[in-house]
Specification:
Elements (H helix, E strand, L loop, with lengths): L6 H21 L4 H23 L5 H32 L5 H18 L2 E4 L2 E4 L1 H13 L9 H6 L1 H49 L6 H40 L4 H10 L6 H17 L8 H27 L8 H21 L1 H20 L17 H12 L13
Antiparallel strand pairs: 1-2
Length: 415
Amino acid sequence: MNREWDQPSKRTAAIILGIFFIYLIYLSRSVIPFLVIAALIAFILIPAVSFFQKKLRLPKAVAVILAYLLLFLALLLIPLLLIPALVDAFGDINIDLVAITQQTQGWLNALLKTYRFIIILNSVYDLSPIVDPALEMVNDFNPTQFIPSLDTIIASIPSTVEFTWGVASNVVGRITASILAIVLTLLYSVYLTVDGDKFVRGAINLAPKTYRPEIITLYHRIKTTWGAYFRGQFTLGLIIGMVTWIGGLIIGIPGALALGVIAGVMEILPNLGPVLAAIPALLVALVQGSTTLDVSNLTFMLIVGGMYILIQQLENNLIVPKVLGEAVELHPLVVMVGVVVGASVGGILGALLAAPTIAMGRTIVSYIYAKILGEDPFPPPSKPPKPTTPFSERLRLLWNKLKPKDEGGGVKDEK
């Protein structure tokens, strides 16, 4: 006996299931970040697993094991190869905060003394009542007072030991919890790598049969967006890091390799990353100057700022459209707001995934909006792409136009 539910019963059941699903997400909120990281690891390794399966004809289990072994090998070898070079590169950066503070004091002292008396329209104005207290504050400031003396360090040893013991107890517990979280995240990622397609098919099969083709198309578009983002960000970071490194070597900025690495890594924060990456470069230029250009440190800082602005313009107008394409094409304001909101909600992970999440949300909202209006959510292209003329054919047409003609108006015969 099969009795179909009426519409109120269906709506009630749907509401109850929705509330129950939201409650499950609330109960799992502590595990969700680890599941997201595991899904990212699986998403990155799935192409390698597919390559081993299709090209090398390996069983799926062997392909997964080989992909994770390569991942662990990369995580071990990359630091061993990069850390010595980065240590040498960062060693070229020498910023003495005490010396910088003293130089700033001298500059402020000279500046304030210059403006104790000013002349405006042949009238002398005495600003010493305002300038002299500021001069006194600048001259009394001693940057070395922030460096503790030996007696102070010795006197603080007992309290430091007690504090260190308490911190160590907490650290041991946190390390244990961190190791457990890492192991569980790796297990999550292994399961998602092996059976991720089953989870996707199960989720798609929850939709009515008439809507499944559209859901599959929506899923492939979302997958394309995330794939384009990760491939694009890796390529973009590599290009920007290389360009910054080479540009820094040309103009002679100390620690060019280190600054190039910083610029490449900061590309994971769209729009905000390049601005943050320019700050240490400007500071190094102002403090240390150039090793090749015979200019003042202030002038060199302006040159470095111009180089970073030029790289940013090349990135926005040439590199990003070619590397990322239109899959995650978002307005910079939307990305910046998304990064801030993502950081406040999910910390570093939320900031890193803000851009592809917004692009995915745009795709889903566009689909829902089209369905509400009764339109086709995935319309075919309005115009077919124009066939491109081969370069050799274009050269031949250009040559025919430029060939000299005889007096009768015809083209000279070729023998």
